[in-house]
Write a structure and sequence with these properties.
alpha+beta; 14 strands; Proliferating Cell Nuclear Antigen
């Protein structure tokens, strides 16, 4: 259709781009000029930038023990089987196949309600790979969105993608090259090695046994045994109740270890057989009293 006069005035006639990058200038600018319509309207955009040191993730390809290469379209096909809410991707090799398993956690966002975690596994034959060398049952897990971004970019560049990694919890790198453009995606992985639990448990066992060994008890037994052997049995002491300081325990010991009755005056008590010795004298029963030596009030001897 016909364009109005307003559209002619605001349409862009030409675009001028200028790069200002002189050594004597402190700033570098990218200037873009848009000349619009017959009115001579100029729109000016300036982008200031500066050179910076580009940081790269450290990844040593010479130490990578697992590697495979494949066309990105095959990887794109398996992602179609994964749900849109899948978060993690587990990759491992088993029985001549490469298995890709997606994990979706429980969610209740909007209309989507997922009560239990779901995982979906898709296998690719090793013969479909251009190159495949990986250890069996070695699981490495990465984020699904990183995996999709790498294969989507490789598919756009129509380049074969290569994955290199060593073991779980170590970096994994997707790399491809096309028309002089070298692309690398270095990702962090998660997972456990196949024999990782066994050495850990064997190392922990001596520590647990060392903690459970009652070392202080053995030392106390060695120290107390000679003392017990050298310590003589307690001597039984004769307690004199006249002092009035005997305790209940000592009285029980005295009763259990009471010596045979005797006429010694160490004790206040006498046997029942000798009670007659303490009776009041009976003059009627006895015969005539013999002469006795006594004292009267005057102190004279009678």
């Amino acid at each position: 259709g016909k364009t109005s006069g307003r559209d002619k005035d605001t349409s862009v006639e030409r675009c001028e781009v200028e790069l200002q990058e002189d050594l004597d200038e402190t700033e570098c600018r990218l200037v873009i000029r848009l000349i619009c319509g017959l009115a001579g309207v100029i729109k000016l955009y300036k982008l200031t930038y500066e050179p910076v040191h580009v940081q790269h993730a450290i990844f040593d390809r010479s130490k990578a023990t697992n590697e495979w290469s494949i066309e990105p379209k095959y990887l794109k096909e398996i992602t179609d089987h994964f749900g849109p809410s899948a978060e993690h991707l587990d990759i491992y090799s088993e029985q001549g196949k490469a298995v890709f398993t997606s994990f979706t956690t429980k969610s209740s966002d909007g209309k989507e309600i997922l009560r239990q975690p779901v995982h979906t596994s898709v296998a690719i034959e090793k013969r479909d790979f251009d190159y495949y060398l990986a250890e069996d049952h070695l699981h490495v897990a990465i984020h699904m969105k990183d995996f999709k971004a790498a294969i989507a970019h490789a598919e756009t560049a129509n380049a074969k993608i290569t994955a290199r990694f060593t073991r779980p919890s170590r970096p994994l790198q997707f790399a491809y090259e096309s028309e002089g453009v070298k692309t690398e995606f270095t990702l962090m992985t998660r997972g456990e090695s196949p024999g990782e639990d066994v050495p850990g448990s064997s190392r922990a066992a001596p520590q647990l046994s060392a903690r459970q060994t009652p070392a202080p008890v053995q030392i106390s037994q060695r120290n107390t045994a000679p003392e017990t052997a050298q310590m003589p049995p307690p001597r039984s002491r004769s307690i004199r109740p006249l002092t009035g300081t005997s305790t209940r325990a000592s009285q029980s010991n005295t009763e259990t270890q009471q010596p045979p009755p005797s006429m010694e005056f160490d004790s206040l008590f006498v046997p029942a057989d000798d009670d007659r010795q303490w009776d009041v004298p009976n003059d009627e029963d006895e015969g005539p009293v013999e002469d006795e030596l006594g004292w009267d009030a005057t102190g004279e001897q009678v």
